[in-house]
Amino acid sequence: MTDAVAAAPPAPRRRGRAVPWLFALALLAVLGWRGWHAWQARQARSAAEAHDAAEQWRALDARIDALRRDQRAQAQRIARADANNRVLRDEVLGLGQRAALLQDSVDKLADPARRGVQALRLDEVEMLLAIGSQRLQLAGDLDGARRAYALAAGVLDGIDDPAWLDLRQALVQERAALDALGADPKAIALARLEAFTATLAPPSALPRDSQDPALPWWRRAFARIVEVRPSQRDVAVAPADRAAGYAALQLELTLARGAGERRDDAAWRSALARADGWLPRLWPLSPGLRRQRAQLAALRALPLQLALPTLGSTLQQLQAMRAAR
Where are the membrane-spanning stretches (predicted)? Predict the structure, then answer.
């Protein structure tokens, strides 16, 4: 009993030893809880920072792409601006060249030797005279040449310088020669050739005496009973030969027409001479044949060229006077 009572007091000491351990455990639990919360907060901040970093990277990539697009657009605008600058530079160079030409023209017009407006009028007179002579020589346009010379005379009358009096007299003489020409010889020859061609009917058969009103009535009456043919060997009798001869005659007349348009005297006469050779093959000797051959001979004698020795003399005199001045 005494031993049991003596052993009982040490029990409170054990409780006092457990209190610090419990306090330490509570402290550790509190620290662990705080640490866990701190770790969770750190993890959340890290996740938030990572998300922000990812958003920043995406924004940065978008900005870089936008900058690249802007750079490409800027490069295209620069290329277009360079092209426009080249075009503008070429236009400025062209304007400079035109300005230089205008300056040269103004300098020439301001030259006292050319005398400005008078020089322009003389240029116009020279151009009109050249046009008139070329219209007459190349195209045979007599009316066009007369109009051009009349315009040149009107422009020359506007120059009050007495130094050009001789030129006015020469122009008056050349205009008088043009007016004295009358109609164009080529037009007259072609018109007479057309009239001659229109009188030629296709010789389908030899002409009968009954169809000739110049014969007496008794010959025309007996011609219906008795058929008389010419004895000349050169007259074609077969219808095919006569048709071929008539076609050859028309071909020669066409060649003569073309030679007349070209004012080719040699070809004109040669074609009409060959056409004259076909007439005896188609018609027998008669007054009508002699009349046709006489018309062809008259056609061969017609001139085609314009006989105007003074053509171009005013233009030559003007060029000589301007060169001397």
Answer: 18-36
The DSSP 8-state label assigned to residue 164 in this structure reads: G
Tokens coding 126: 């020279």
The answer to whether the predicted template modeling score (pTM) of the entire model surpasses 0.85 is no
Encoding tokens for residue 31?
A: 């620290």
Question: Does a structural domain hold residue 50?
Answer: no
The rounded distance, in Å, linking the Cα atoms of 242 and 204 is 7
Check pLDDT > 60 for residue 135.
yes
Q: Nearest to residue 278, comparing CAs of 297, 300, 293?
A: 293
In terms of Cα–Cα distance, which of 237, 248, 239, 241 is closest to 278?
248
If you count DSSP H runs as helices and E runs as strands, how many of each does the chain have, helices first? Answer: 11, 0
Q: Please provide the distance, in angstroms rounded to a whole number, between the alpha carbons at the two ends of the chain.
A: 172
Counted domains in the chain: 2
Q: What is the DSSP string of 108-143?
A: HHT-TTTTTHHHHHHHHHHHHHHHHHHIIIII--HH
* Exposure class string for 186-209: b at 16+ Cβ within 10 A, else e: beebbeebeebeeebeebeebeeb
268/257 Cα distance (integer angstroms): 8
Does one domain contain both 292 and 220?
A: yes
- CA distance linking residue 59 with residue 79, whole number of Å: 30
Range of the domain at 145: 117-183+309-324
Write down the pLDDT at residue 236. Answer: 61
> What pLDDT, on a 0 to 100 scale, did the predictor assign at position 225?
58
Residue with tokens 């018609």: 283
Distance CA 183, CA 166 (A): 29
Record the tokens describing residue 24, joined without a space: 């330490």
C-alpha angle 161-164-168 in degrees, rounded to nearest 5: 120
DSSP 286: S
Sign of CA dihedral 157, 160, 164, 166: positive
